[in-house]
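Preliminary data (for renewal application), flavin mononucleotide complex.
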Amino acid sequence: MKYNKNTFFYLEDGKIVACHSLSQDYYELDLEHFKRLIEKSKDLPSQASKEQIDQDLSSGGLLTDNLDDQLLAWEGDPISFYCHQGTRIYAQNSPILNEDSFCEEFIKVSSAVREIPPKSIPDYVQQIKLPDPDLTPFRKSSFYDVIQKRKTSRNFDRVSLNLKELSSLLYLCFGPIHGTVWEDFEKHHIPSLGLRRSSPSATGLQGCDAYLVILNASDIEQGIYYYASDAHTLYQLKNRFDDESLVYALGDQFWAKNLSAGLFIVNDMKRTWIKDKKARGYLATYLEAGHLSQTILLAATALGLHTWITGSFRDDVVDKMLQLKNSPNFASFFIGLGFGNNGSIPEKFIETIASKTR
Ligand SMILES: Cc1cc2nc3c(=O)[nH]c(=O)nc-3n(C[C@H](O)[C@H](O)[C@H](O)COP(=O)(O)O)c2cc1C
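Predicted structure:
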């Protein structure tokens, strides 16, 4: 029997815990069993004296003869491998449900959610009621034109945005554009705590919030603002970004300079955990943010803005600036908004390449 590489280990409360990432079963191991796994990881031949231990380990799948259970051809690093394995749903963990039992299960899961955690409004210095959104540009835009025009821009000029445009963008992407009642559920008198917006939501509970970064705007000061979509209001945080601190937070992506504004999409894990505490639920928060980001990019394009998206930042720096430190909520995307020559290659790259080929 071979050591099953689909297993990972951690320590908790003085115990060694093994998790079989495919079955998602957890086992507490004593030192003897753990040491045996270390031996088996070296692929040593079996020893009669260790048969009982081997049997224990194989009953949990930590040792296996089944080579199908062994590593797939994964080229990523070990952490990415366990992320991948942990987020898979296997048939062995997913019993077949007939239509009746599926309905029962659906009702059970839905009725188990009695209230959703309130949105976490960060500590703020002031509250700003946004002007009413103007949805005309979205109504007038051709879907094809907007899709066709959306582009990643990496050259921005210092041009001001105004609050009215941001109000329209926030409302379209994060606001209750279908009203505050989920019509299908209401019609059939089915209780629902969900909310609908312009993008799909993995849990139906809208786990993503907007943190608006103002850099250059005519009628609102530079700062970071939490958007409360129900009241269409901004809450100004105590921190603010300027070009330098934003570029640092975004991992030195210097083309973020001269943006007019930006939006961090922040995933609220409490909303996910109420329905799903598994790794696949965690993965879905990123997928949800990805759907939302596309809606934001298209909406901003319809408003005539140039856009840039990144999912790569110094997470701890962003957490600190958005006052998310020690909270399970985290930023998954930043979308830069502004005006420029709409080129996707930073001017500095072009100059550097040209100077080397001269
Ligand atoms: C999930 C995701 C992450 C991205 N991360 C970055 C990034 O870190 N930095 C960056 O400059 N562009 C980033 N981009 C933008 C892509 O480079 C860009 O979409 C791609 O080059 C295609 O160009 P287009 O958007 O103009 O079609 C990201 C895009 C996506 C969807």
